[in-house]
Design goal:
The complex is a heterotetramer of chains A (281), B (350), C (288) and D (366). Chain A has 281 residues and is mainly alpha-helical. In chain A, 72% of the residues lie in helices and 1% in strands. Chain A starts with a helix and ends with a helix. Residues 276-281 of chain A have low confidence and may be disordered. Chain B is of the alpha+beta class and 350 residues long. Chain B has eight helices and 19 strands. Chain B is elongated, with a radius of gyration of 24 Å. The mean pLDDT of chain B is 89. Chain C has helices spanning 2-30, 48-54, 57-89, 95-107, 110-120, 127-134, 146-174, 179-187, 191-219, 223-228, 240-250, 254-284. Classes of the chains: A mainly alpha (281), B alpha+beta (350), C mainly alpha (288), D alpha+beta (366). Chains A and C meet through helix 1, helix 4, helix 5, helix 6 and helix 7 of A and helix 1, helix 3, helix 4, helix 5 and helix 6 of C.
Chain lengths: 281, 350, 288, 366
């Protein structure tokens, strides 16, 4: 019985690992193919199945008709994601702390309703906001700029930061802030001097989630930017719809996905230590 | 010096109900009460952590009811060992001094002296998480005392410690606060022995109210009400219902005439309270032994009477078999009587 | 006191309101206009857009399709994610590596991966049909048949988001207390009983949270569909968001798409609230 | 039900222990009889929890054997050991009713429904839980939940012992007394062996037929409460058992005997120890309960002045300063009649003054 379970488990883990890795391996293999190798049907192993070519990779750093320069979109993507994540994290952390420690009341609206308001922004389908955002940014002259996208992404990421941090602060004993206040801190001082230094695990998890969801957004980048500012997901899709150079697509995809694999390592560490238990509930 | 008038907090599972008291500087007040009696709520209300719906707090005649927490000149030690996890032991204790505006070097010097006093001189640069529970609570105590605030509050500070550590800290506590003349110390506990051992004045709380206060020995000898008697007795006091008719006290099949040790009230129902020292082996009453257990050099015997249950304590370690019958006597001079409304109506000749 | 508590909340609240409120109110206003390619600007045509929504079969079909897709994919993600979390919960050889590996898909950009998946599912040049043919199956019309396209979208969704479930559930598992398990062992409960009587009840709050979050995110599915199938073949994989996108940004029927958006939003909020309540009642036994 | 034997049982969390210090539990031989109550007592980190985990099967010991009724169970898994355990925090199956909780261990063992019903009814009556049988278990108070945990052990007829891991920690102080009595009564009625882990000496003293006192992974003494109280084998047991702890008065070796200026009570110097041996410390241990305070004029072995009186209710603890500066404590019920500064004579029955050499009871000389 035990042996049976064990075998089943091993097979399951093995199968799932293959499933997870498969598209990456396929992309890696494809990125070294040329037009001949691709049109002759599915092949897998370079040198054995096909003659490898580096044109997929070189094209990413070449301008003009022969290539699609990836450097610009990469920098734009990174800038938008980092700035928006940072702003969301700061604002979200403050709000989450307020919601977990003070009582707010505005007519019938109480803390739980405000928290729900923040988190419910995730329910809003992007399409509901796309057209008004378009018009609003146009009014502000922020269409097709990093600033405009940051503004929109903050609205997208703030709920995530509030969600993770509210749960995290709920796990920090109230007595800690009270103690800081009895020791002579103002409520704001208590937050900065005592709570914040003890919130690193929560901040890391919230920050990681912001990065993931920011980096991976496509829709707003797609509707609100055109030529001046271009993010990675949008440029790959525009590549997709044209002549379909599979080798460039694959290399492009791998590069765009790589930075966040590092995030996975950080997230795993916090998850295994159990420090995420407070951050996620 | 610290005067509280009619403190009342919003109705909750545990809330304060019209609590008034005058605390004098240089005294240690132990606040005794069961879980949920309102002890913690009182301390938190004084600190400004729990909002009041009524009442005033005056410190040196000055009304501080609305003053922000940080300006109240009070400190509080929690039941859980709470320290700043991100700071070293030394910085933990220096923290309140730094907030008072002291220079870093001066704050650390004062903190280090205080830590030596509480016996942690060798642990200045550890993190609180690297200390044992008892040591963590010493850090919290040092942090509270180093400020030299007017009011020092300790909320069941020993409740989460091992038995022997508790005993040791209880023993040290008077020394730690020995040179305190200017401040009021409030110490809450659920254990009658601790309250009696540490306080010059004992305050008994029950259901969000102060129901008695006074020197511990007096309160123990003459509890004003049945609730007080019940809260301050450990091992538990036993209550038996009876009645008085024609100057004879009846309970179950027993009866008792007035004596020098105990006068009887006029006719009517009474509650008889028996502490372990009111029952002695050998005598006219018969009881069944429910269980016997040791406590130090004494044996505690749980007795089942036809009129109720009671506990007897016998010096020395002796084995009593459960189920056996035992003849005992009830000492009238140790017995207490309470009226149906809970008032103590014990009257003795002396 | 007053000022400091507002110091914490107001910046975020005002920012969000400022960013969200205008678009939302604007959408409400536009939904009562006939703004389209021919008539741009805000006129007022009453509720006729809404009347049109209720007669729009394509919209309701897309909503049905969306419900089916989200419920199936989230159930699969939950089951597989829980199974994976349980499998690597206790010490396994190479556990660290497996955990990182299992997390990676959720870190990747859905549209980018969809581009890759499109090549994977390619009927003549993709590896899936190539491998299947080795077993004598196929060729399967992955992206060109209605069922095939639906299943493809499902597979990609499961690949992408099972890690999210895995993450939440494993984080929950590692923080569980040990005593209940020892108690269950002492009571003589086997693996199966221990799971249903100890693990599952302890994980109920996390389960609810994870399911709701995933349902919310899944209901917005659009990127994957856009790249993988463009809603096709025909309307076989067209989800609500995608349909609204077509009406709004492709056909430029701004007024009508605004009405569609709002109807959709209200339906989403109501149904997610009901689902959350139901889950709470069945899994935690909360009465309120 | 079974006799439990710990045969040279020890445990080190290191794979290759170098010396004494590497052992969380230093090897020990103990025999626990069927049907009695035992307590494992000591400060935190003393190894009592390790010992309990070895008995429950959570930790496989690195050294020695564990026998239940002469059967080696050292490598038998928890589920096959026939033990029951109550934890510090109540463990219940939250989705089940009280009845289903109590029935669960029997269901796992495939017992017939009628038999289960009968056992559950019996145990519920024993625990006074009849009225709550159909309530969801999670709605009960902490002490009732602890009774359910206990009940899951009691329903089984094959249980060798019930392990209680500080089960009274989360119980309200006023309920502790009642629950402790209940545990004793159940032991009496069922004859089930119970093993309690605790740091509270008064809890151990009142609960157990026999107490194992531990410190730093080493069993200091094992015996009845009376033995531990009247014959503590070393100064730690003298300190740990009893409150306040045993008074330890240092003795000076001179002229063939041990004495102190403080108290006129001499002990013969052990023959093996030469006079002037500075290495050994000689101490006299006297329980505060054994110090009798008499009128200062009457016959006594010493005099002391009261420097502190602690009211503990019925009893009181009086701190006395002897002329030499030595401070001792005495427990009395007459504390209410005493005042600070009073001087009293001290009497101690000879058998209650114990000699300790380097912290160990010197039995031959007492």
């Amino acid at each position: 019985m035990n042996k049976f379970y064990h075998t089943l488990k091993t097979l399951f883990l093995l199968g799932w690992s293959i499933f997870v890795v498969f598209p990456f391996l396929w992309a890696l293999s494809t990125s070294f193919k040329d037009a001949n190798a691709i049109t002759s049907g599915a092949t897998y192993i370079p040198w054995v199945d096909f003659e490898p070519s580096t044109q997929g990779w070189t094209s990413l750093f070449t301008n003009g008709s022969q290539g699609i320069n990836i450097v610009g979109p990469f920098i734009d993507s990174a800038a938008v994601t980092l700035i928006a994540s940072l702003v969301s994290l700061i604002l979200g952390t403050l709000a989450a702390y307020g919601l977990s420690r003070f009582e707010y009341r505005l007519g019938f609206v109480k803390n739980a309703d405000i928290t729900f308001f923040f988190i419910s922004q995730r329910i809003m389908p992007p399409i509901v906001l796309a057209i008004p955002f378009f018009l609003m940014l146009k009014e502000l002259g922020a269409l097709d700029t990093i600033f405009g996208l940051v503004l929109v992404y903050v609205a997208l990421l703030l709920p995530i930061a509030v969600w993770v941090m509210t749960d995290f602060f709920a796990g920090i004993p109230k007595e800690l802030d009270e103690m800081a206040m009895t020791d002579g801190c103002s409520p704001i001082g208590a937050f900065f001097r005592v709570i914040l230094p003890n919130s690193v695990p929560g901040l890391v998890v919230a920050g990681m989630f912001c990065l993931i969801f920011g980096w991976n957004d496509f829709f707003f980048a797609f509707t609100l930017t055109f030529t001046e500012t271009q993010l990675l997901p949008v440029s790959i899709v525009s590549l997709n719809s044209s002549v379909t150079p599979w080798w460039s697509l694959s290399a492009f995809a791998l590069i765009s996905v790589a930075p966040l694999a590092l995030v996975a390592i950080v997230v795993e560490r916090y998850m295994s230590r159990g420090t995420m238990s407070g951050a996620i509930r | 010096m610290l005067q509280i008038d009619h403190l009342t907090t919003a109705k909750a599972k545990v809330s304060l109900d019209n609590v008034s008291f005058l605390f004098e500087a240089g005294n240690i007040y132990t606040i005794l009460g069961r879980t949920g009696a309102g002890k913690t709520e009182l301390l938190r209300a004084l600190m400004g952590l729990n909002p009041l719906i009524n009442g005033d707090i005056k410190l040196d005649k000055e009304n501080i009811t609305k003053r922000p927490i940080r300006d109240r000149n009070m400190s509080l030690v929690y039941q859980q060992f709470i320290n700043y996890p991100h700071l070293s032991v030394l910085d933990n204790v220096a923290f309140p001094l730094r907030r008072q505006g002291k220079k870093k070097a001066q704050a650390q010097a004062l903190a280090s002296t205080m830590l030596t006093t509480v016996g942690l001189g060798d642990f200045l640069h550890r993190r609180p998480s690297q200390l044992s529970g008892g040591q963590q609570q010493r850090v919290a105590l040092a942090r509270a005392m180093v400020k030299q605030s007017r009011i020092l509050m300790l909320d069941e500070p020993l409740a989460n410690l091992d038995y022997k550590l508790r005993e040791q800290l209880r023993e040290e506590f008077p020394r730690l606060v020995a040179d305190n003349q200017e401040s009021v110390i409030l110490y809450t506990t659920t254990e009658p022995r601790e309250a009696m051992e540490l306080g010059n004045t004992m305050i008994v709380m029950h259901d969000g109210e102060i129901i008695a206060s006074g020197p511990p020995a007096d309160l123990f000898a003459h509890p004003p009400t049945k609730d007080t008697a019940s809260v301050i007795s450990d091992p538990p006091i036993s209550f038996i219902s009876g009645f008085v008719r024609d100057q004879v006290l009846y309970f179950g099949e027993g009866q008792l005439a007035p004596s020098e040790g105990l006068q009887l009230p006029p006719d009517g129902p009474v509650t008889i309270a028996l502490r372990p020292d009111a029952i002695e082996p050998g005598g006219a009453f018969t009881a069944k032994i429910g269980l016997s257990e040791f406590s130090g050099s004494q044996t505690i015997i749980h007795l089942d009477f036809d009129f109720g249950r009671a506990i007897m304590m016998v010096e020395g370690i002796e084995t009593f078999k459960s189920g056996d019958n035992l003849s005992i006597s009830i000492q009238a001079e140790q017995m207490m009587l309470f009226a149906p409304d809970g008032r103590n109506i014990t009257l003795r000749d002396n | 006191m007053l000022s400091s508590k507002h110091f914490f909340l107001l910046p975020a609240l005002l920012t969000l309101v400022a960013i969200i409120l205008f678009p939302l109110l604007f959408t409400v206003r536009v939904s009562f206009s006939s703004w389209d390619v021919f008539q741009s600007g805000l006129d007022f045509i009453g509720g006729s857009n809404y009347v049109r929504v209720f007669a729009d079969d394509r919209f309701w079909q897309s909503l049905q399709r969306l419900s089916l897709l989200s419920i199936i994919s989230v159930s699969l993600q939950y089951t597989l994610g829980f199974a994976l979390a349980l499998a690597v919960w206790k010490q396994v050889r190479g556990g660290r590596l497996l955990r990182v590996l299992f997390l990676i898909p959720m870190m990747t950009t859905p549209v980018v991966m969809s581009v890759i998946w499109r090549t994977v599912f390619h009927e003549s040049l993709g590896p899936v049909n190539d491998i299947l043919s080795a077993f004598g199956v196929g060729p399967v019309p992955w992206l060109s048949s209605a069922t095939g396209a639906f299943i493809s979208v499902l597979i990609v969704e499961v690949w992408q988001w099972t890690p999210f479930m895995f993450l939440l559930l494993l984080a929950g598992l590692v923080s569980l207390p040990k005593e209940p398990y020892l108690a269950a062992a002492i009571d003589g409960a086997g693996t199966w009983r221990t799971f249903w009587q100890v693990t599952f009840p302890l994980m109920a709050p996390i389960t609810i949270g994870a399911l709701i979050i995933r349902l919310i995110e899944a209901s917005k599915i659009m990127d994957t569909v856009y790249v993988l199938t463009s809603g096709g073949p025909g309307t076989a994989t067209e989800t609500s968001s995608y349909y609204i996108y077509i009406r709004g940004l492709r056909d430029f029927q701004i007024g009508y798409s605004a009405a569609l958006s709002l109807v959709y939003l209200v339906i989403m909020i109501i149904s997610l609230t009901i689902i959350a309540k139901l889950l709470l009642r069945t899994l935690v036994g909360k009465d309120e | 039900m079974a006799k439990i034997v710990l045969e040279n049982l020890g445990h080190s969390y290191l794979s290759n222990p170098k010396g004494e210090h590497d052992f969380a539990l230093k090897p020990v031989n103990l025999t626990w009889e069927d049907g009695k109550t035992y307590a494992l007592l000591g400060p935190s980190g003393c190894g009592k929890t390790t010992m309990l985990n070895i008995i429950s099967g959570l930790v496989p010991p690195s050294h020695g054997r564990l026998l239940f009724d002469d059967q080696d169970v050292t490598s038998v898994p928890t589920s096959a050991r026939n033990i029951a355990q109550v934890f510090q925090f109540p463990v219940i199956y939250s989705t089940k009713t009280v009845r289903q909780n109590l029935a669960f261990p029997l269901e796992c063992r495939g017992m017939t429904p009628s038999k289960i019903k009968q056992r559950v009814a019996e145990v519920a009556t024993l625990l006074d839980l009849d009225y709550a049988l159909d309530m969801p278990a999670r709605k009960l108070s902490a002490d009732q939940k602890q009774l359910i945990s206990l009940g899951r052990g009691l329903v089984r007829e094959d249980v060798s012992a019930i392990l209680l891991d500080e089960p009274l920690t989360v119980i309200d102080p006023q309920m502790k007394f009642m629950l402790r009595r209940k545990l004793r009564e159940i032991n009496r009625q069922t004859g089930m062996t119970m093993i309690l882990v605790t740091h509270d000496q008064s809890e151990a003293m009142s609960f157990a037929d026999e107490i194992v006192v531990m410190k730093d992974g080493l069993v200091q003494q094992s015996g009845t409460p009376e033995e531990l109280f009247s014959q503590p084998q070393n100064d730690f047991v003298g300190y740990f058992i009893g409150s306040p702890p045993m008074n330890m008065i240092t003795l000076e070796p001179n002229l063939g005997s041990l004495s102190t200026e403080a108290i006129n009570l001499t002990k013969p110097l052990p023959a093996a120890m030469p006079v002037g041996n500075n290495v050994s410390i000689y101490q006299m241990g006297i329980r505060p309960e054994h110090i009798v305070m008499v009128d200062k004029e009457s016959d006594s072995i010493g005099k002391g002045t009261i420097i502190k009186i602690e009211h503990l209710g019925v009893d009181g603890v009086v701190t006395l300063k002897l002329p030499t500066g030595v401070i001792i404590k005495a427990k009395t019920r007459k504390h209410t009649e005493m005042t600070l500064g009073d001087t009293f004579g001290i009497r101690v029955c000879k058998k209650n003054a114990l000699l300790y050499i380097d912290g160990t009871l010197s039995s031959s000389l007492n």
